[in-house]
Structures
1.
Amino acid sequence: MYETILYDVMEGIATITLNRPEKFNAFTEKMHKEIIDALKQAGKSSDVRCLIITGTGKAFNAGQDLSDMQGVEVDFGEFLRKRYNPMIMQIRNTEKPVIAAVNGVAAGAGMSLALACDIRLVSEKAFFTNAFINIGLVPDSGGCYFLPRIVGIGKALELAMTGEKISAEEAYRIGLANKICSAENFEAEVKEYAARLAKLPTKSIGLIKRAMYKGVEMNLEETLEYEAYCQDIAGSTADHKEGVQAFLEKRSPVFTGK
Ligand code: T3D
């Protein structure tokens, strides 16, 4: 059904695999369309309670396909507004956890894609590079938003200004990676992590995502009010009732995502 990505749903987990290994999974217009479509599908489906974005072969994603750009006069603003920005907003607006399973290099907008995800699981062989500077550009696709929020403004400026490679260990040390996984068992370790998230109260996770991202923008008073609003919604879910019931009955809860 898709040409540039693979899409698979199994046991509550939707996996979007960027699939242009010969180009290090670099973005094309088609790939943007397909990723957005797959994100929408997964977001809507009640069978899906966790999403994974990963890459085929040696790379996670190498940013824009630069061979596509040769000899082309680009309206950069339009290019980003039409292709990159909707993809990033779709990830943010998906009220389910989105994991970036960074199997290899994540460069340029590929790094921004990983930053836009909620959790980053990183193969020990992976590395990041904010490669925009190497071709005289500035971080886009939310790079200027996510990077300082995740690693702090000082480190973000350094990474963006130098484009230096960040190993998996360094990424973990500075809070860019949530977990380093073995290269050998990468897929299995990612699936295990995702399966854990897919069994949790999905509606609460969606609300946590909304409230936490809003929380970094709002003041305390606004945050307290927004938490109260979200708790009203969470408190009326079947999973909340099940959690309390299971606690009282001294058993493990079985959450259904409802
Ligand atoms: O118009 C606009 O550009 C606006 C949009 C901007 C968004 C952006 O993402 S800008 C940033 C674009 N990306 C880059 O600048 C990264 C370019 N690639 C690299 O710096 C390196 O390839 C990597 C650090 C990603 C990996 O290095 P390495 O040494 O592991 O591999 P390699 O040998 O350089 O690349 C392997 C192959 O992938 C190679 O193909 P070949 O020679 O074996 O046939 C290489 O050409 C290809 N490849 C890697 N990145 C891209 C790419 N092909 C097209 N576009 C790429 N971005």
Note: Residues 23-24, 26, 62-67, 69, 74, 76, 79, 105, 107-109, 129, 131-132, 134-135, 137, 140 surround T3D (CB under 6 Å).
2.
Amino acid sequence: MLVSSLSSLLAGRIAERFSAAAPELTFDPQVRRSAHADFQADGVLAAGRALGRNPRELAVAVAAGLAGEPVLAASSVAGPGFINLTFTDRALLTQAAARLADDRLGVPLSDTGRVTVIDYSQPNIAKEMHVGHLRSTIIGDALARVLGHLGGTVVRQNHIGDWGTQFGMLIEYLFGDAVGDEPAGISRLSALYRAARARFEADPAFVERSRRRVVALQAGDPETVTAWRDIVAESTRYFTDVYDRLGVLLEPGDVAGESFYNPMLAGVAEDLLALGVATVSDGAVCVFFDDVRGPDGDPVPLIVRKSDGGYGYAATDLAAVRYRVTDLHADRVLYVVDARQALHFRMVFETARRAGWVPDGVAVEHVRFGLMLGPGGRPFKTRYGGNALFTDLIDEAVAGARKVIDTKNPEVDAGVLAERARQVGIGALKYADLATSRTRDYVYDPARMLSLTGNTSVYLQYAHVRARSILRKAGADGAIDTGLPLEAAERLLILDLDGFADAVEEVGQTLEPHRLCGYLFRLAQSFTAFFERCPVLTAPAPVRENRLALCLLTARTLRAGLELLGIESPDRL
Ligand code: ARG
């Protein structure tokens, strides 16, 4: 049975009491944790203002009504009308026992029945992945995990850049200019790409040949299509390797790249014209918006079809959104893409709405994120700009983690060390990204992300390890005796443990993984305080049992939370 969190239980009780005291108003109790009691409810203040009544008197009436609740040890009113509420020790222990008995740790299946398409990762063929793709991959994957865990149906879509005029140039170069003995792989491809581009910029004859090659590719010329396929396959192998190393959910089957939508583009343009959503302007098929204008005040259109008949990024995204709603039955489509593409998505979504391709009940959202900046706060270029940008970052994180673990515990053998270094290093890379507010830019800082203190995954992983180690030494899990009194540090730990479901739901609603990071960090801090103040293994029998149970619940909650962020939690480090 699903037991709701203590804060939502309180919110429900307060709302009942409030409607008894002031039935004319719908009311948000605003329950939050407090330093003066377990929880504080502030909602009466705003309600008093709205009703033109003295908030303190309202608060006193609500608090008096709550006084009879058997789960509450105290209810009082402070200041202008804050209600302070404290649970009995028994209520807290009963709640902890309920969480322990539940595999889902209280997390409801609140997204059941909803189909969410998440467009994330989206690297480009024949180019290395860059830090923007890293952010998209990490954030998108965490959201896919959270929404899936909340019971939603999640359809992952990797919108790779695998189509476009650059392939004409690349294939032409490959046939004519490339010497054949470089090792296959992404570094060869991206070197080829750079060489092809240089040639393209210097040699008009090559430009003309490349253009003819694009036409051949679009016309399905077998030799050209085979070359294109090989390039896509080579890049995809590299992406798959990266995904495997990162431990993300994306699979080859999740790829629906730009080429996938190519056959739909002509229909998109025709339909938009027929619907009157698009118009022809200077030979191009365009959609205009009142509020999108250039520096000169002229409207800037979304170009669906260029005057030369070619289709670009916008047409592909229009086809994609229609496909996602119509064929994938999305109730919600999320685009995890950096903030600089905000205008593009605004225009695409608005066009699709006008065309009726995204009906009212369907949400489309640009889940934007800020830049990941290099050391020193400058855009990523210098040191990581070369060949193996992505893999450099991963290698550096894993090597750093190896050092941290090795210093703490030099005894482990090489194979185990390598595995743990991977878990800690990848975790640190992901966590540093997820823990900052999504829309903000942040500076990549390998030393800080691997710090043993502060809001890092390493700190969380060590808290988890400490809890597991106590349980191992005890040899038993501990069953809860709800009749025992609690120490202050135990109360705080239980209150934090109980907040897990609310934190996960909050990420589902806001699409902001840093909220779960913040929650897990507070939990690990409370566990550390508990661990310092409340001996577990040496405590007398019934207390020891209860404390072991709290260790187990903490370990399970940390592991479940980290897993939702795509981060592993080893039992030992
Ligand atoms: N491949 C694009 C890039 O690297 C991102 C694609 C984002 N997704 C989309 N549906 N447009 O910038």
Note: Residues 119, 122, 124, 159, 161, 317, 320, 335, 337 surround arginine (CB under 6 Å).
